[in-house]
Specification:
By secondary structure, the protein is mainly α. The chain is built from 14 helices and three strands. A hairpin with a 3-residue loop joins strand 2 and strand 3. It binds zinc ion (ZN). Belongs to the peptidase M48 family.
Length: 297
């Protein structure tokens, strides 16, 4: 697994981003209740959104067709697919408040039959969930919402686009989606390898710890608004840690730092629980405790 050498952006380019007018700055500033975030990275605009989304669409199509050929695409009629789609469909309406462009995205949700403990959301709203994460973690709907929210948050906060811009592979985007590989989307290549046998381009961009933290919190914010208990995020990561006592699952290799993340989520429950309570139309102190479906040590 080759890692792309991170290129330093030239000073002139950075300087051009410094010259932002107040009107532009205001436009980018979205007032939020719930989890607070910084404005989206300006560097990301080096990669045109359309190209990014087109590249993702092509990659997703290829992944679907390869999975289908191998019988690894769980059919739409399967109750598991219906369940994953049901959770995603409740979450998606809350996406545009985090990124107005999400209104125009072509949202798609598919379940891939693979033991990988992982999920993803590509730029432009193309979601993939692996049966491994659903089954091995025995996900409740709230926990599934925490996962889908997390992945959707990466896309809404445009982490993949930012990474692509920062790593100087914009010319590859310009040359066409085929040259890209799934790597620019922050997907662990082992996942797509298992499911589709693709990749091989070797460019691997993992999300940073800060991006993971943001995806956790924004993901739970979205899930809470959609009526899913944000405390499920904590249960989820505890389950993840339990699973990790055996062989480390892929999600942990791409999503590190279990204990810190749990602490971060706990520290933000004062912001997240009111969103959930509001969606349930009850005061916070009337919310029943969150109970997962397995004993958590
Ligand atoms: Zn992540």
């Amino acid at each position: 697994m080759k890692k792309l050498k991170h290129l330093t952006l030239c000073a002139a380019l950075l300087a051009s981003f410094a010259g932002v007018t107040p009107a532009q700055a205001q436009k980018e500033q979205v007032v939020q209740d719930g989890i607070a975030v910084k404005p989206l990275s300006r560097v990301r605009v080096l990669v045109p959104e359309e190209q990014m989304n087109e590249a993702a669409a092509q990659q997703y199509r290829e992944m679907l067709s390869q999975a289908q050929q191998k019988g690894a695409l769980v059919p739409a009629t399967d109750p598991q697919t219906k369940r994953v789609r049901g959770v995603a469909q409740r979450i998606i309406p809350y996406a545009p408040r985090w990124n107005a462009n999400a209104k125009k995205w072509n949202w798609e949700v598919n379940l891939f039959d693979s033991p990988q403990v992982n999920a993803f959301c590509m730029p432009g709203g193309r979601i993939g969930v692996f049966t491994g994460i659903v089954n091995q973690l025995k996900l409740t709907d709230d926990e599934m919402a925490a996962i889908i929210g997390h992945e959707v948050a990466h896309a809404l906060r445009e982490h993949g686009r930012e990474r692509t811009a920062k790593s100087g592979i914009t010319s590859m985007v310009a040359r066409g989606a085929g040259a890209l590989g799934a790597a620019i989307f922050g997907i662990d290549p082992n996942i797509t390898n298992t499911v589709t046998g693709m990749i091989g381009q070797g460019v691997v961009l993992k999300f940073s710890r800060d991006e993971e933290r943001e995806a956790d919190l924004v993901g739970l914010d979205i899930a809470a608004r959609a009526g899913y208990d944000p405390r499920a995020g904590i249960a989820l990561w505890r389950k993840m840690a339990m699973l990790n006592k055996g062989a480390p699952p892929e999600f942990l290799s791409t999503h590190p730092g279990g204990e810190t993340r749990i602490r971060d989520m706990e520290e933000h429950m004062n912001v997240l629980l009111p969103l959930y309570a509001r969606s349930k139309n009850v005061p916070v102190n009337r919310l029943p405790p969150y109970r997962t479906n397995v004993a958590i040590r």
